[in-house]
Specification:
Blueprint lengths: L4 E6 L5 H8 L5 E7 L14 E2 L2 H6 L4 E4 L6 H10 L3 E5 L6 H14 L3 E4 L6 H11 L6 E11 L9 H17 L3 E9 L9 E8 L4 E7 L1 E13 L2 E6 L4 E7 L18 E6 L7 H13 L9 H20 L3 E2 L3
Parallel strand pairs: 1-2, 1-4, 2-3, 4-5, 5-6, 7-10
Antiparallel strand pairs: 7-11, 8-9, 8-15, 9-10, 11-12, 12-13, 13-14
């Protein structure tokens, strides 16, 4: 039996503590070193010395690292690991802007290292099943993907607005679920909580496939909502990623029409509703297992840094659209 992979973690905040828990739980991995300039406020890594930097993690002899520091530090930390030949899983978004994201992706690709971005929603059982069913043609032609990601402001966020923190999930998962890149976006945003960055955004857009998209994202709602609805010619699939539920609403009119004079008309009416029974594994654990397997050369179920770069481009386009009041088209 081969020795376990030696993993390191930098960033022991609200997200870092969950990474630490999962790194200690999965087979074939040993969490050997952690780092955070501010210590370990949540007691996430008992028994381990809290190191001061990424360089100190490298010196500890790690095989791969998980980066859970604030977005503004992603570039410097990730490049330190790339230069040292350490595989890396970087929390979303990949970087603060497009230039930094290009630097990071290029560095890992040039070094032949496994680099991934932590888009945890992709590993939610409801969205994984939704994507599989769409790929198999259950909905037929896809007309629209709409998401709602709403809730209160999380005190952990200090360096970005709601677009880079939350909407980045929706931009990533929409392109992934549909299997088509984002072609154009139009957005409006506002600031209502006294912060410098936006705390509410509404985004409409279109994928390269022609599918329409819509995203409502904010930190101003007194309830938490995480919903993705995909509508197609045969019905709709609706995923609630808080409960990991997936429901199919059939279009009763999608059945074969034998009435010749009506064959050119596509009607819509309520049909059967089915809530699927899913195996509910913790998404973060599934994400860690997928990255471990990629490092070992046993799988490719990761969000690549090149995909992470594409999402950063989409995020920047949303912010530009909201600022300029214009439709922004993304290069394919």
């Amino acid at each position: 039996m081969s020795a376990p992979l030696r993993a390191g973690l930098i960033g022991l905040g609200m997200m870092g503590r969950h990474h630490a828990r999962n790194l200690r739980a999965i087979d074939g991995v040993e969490l050997v070193a952690v780092a955070d300039a501010y210590g370990d406020p949540h007691g996430a890594a008992p028994g381990l010395e809290v190191l001061p930097s990424a360089e100190a993690l490298v010196a500890a002899g790690i095989d791969y690292a998980v980066v859970a520091v604030p977005t503004q530090f992603h570039r410097d930390v990730a490049l330190t690991f790339a230069e040292a030949g350490v595989h890396c899983l970087v929390e979303k978004p990949l970087a603060f802007d497009i230039h930094e994201a290009e630097e990071i992706a290029g560095a890992f690709e040039s070094a032949g290292l496994v680099g991934a971005v932590g888009y945890i929603e992709r590993y939610n059982p409801a969205l994984q099943e939704m994507r599989r069913r769409i790929a198999e043609g259950q909905l037929g032609e896809i007309y629209q993907i709409a998401t709602r990601r709403q809730g209160g402001f999380p005190a952990r966020i200090a360096d970005v607005g709601v677009v880079k923190d939350l909407a980045t999930h929706d931009l990533d998962l929409t392109a992934w679920v549909a299997g088509s890149p984002i072609a154009e976006v139009a957005a409006v945003s506002t600031r209502r909580s006294g912060r410098e960055d936006e705390d509410m955004v509404s985004i409409t857009g279109r994928l390269a496939s022609g599918t329409l998209t819509n995203h409502l994202v904010n930190w101003l709602s007194p309830f938490k909502e995480r919903v993705t609805a995909v509508t197609g010619e045969n019905g709709a699939l609706v995923a609630d990623t808080i409960t990991a539920d997936l429901t199919f609403y059939a279009n009763a009119e999608a059945r074969e029409n034998t009435w010749e004079s009506m064959q050119s008309f596509r009607g819509v009416s309520e049909g059967d509703m089915v809530r699927y029974a899913l195996h509910r594994a913790e998404p973060l654990r599934t994400e860690h297992e997928a990255f471990r397997d990629a490092v070992l050369g046993r799988g490719d179920n990761i969000v690549t840094m090149r995909e992470g770069l594409a999402t950063v481009r989409a995020v920047e386009a949303v912010l530009e659209s909201a600022s300029e009041g214009a439709v922004i088209r993304l290069e394919q």
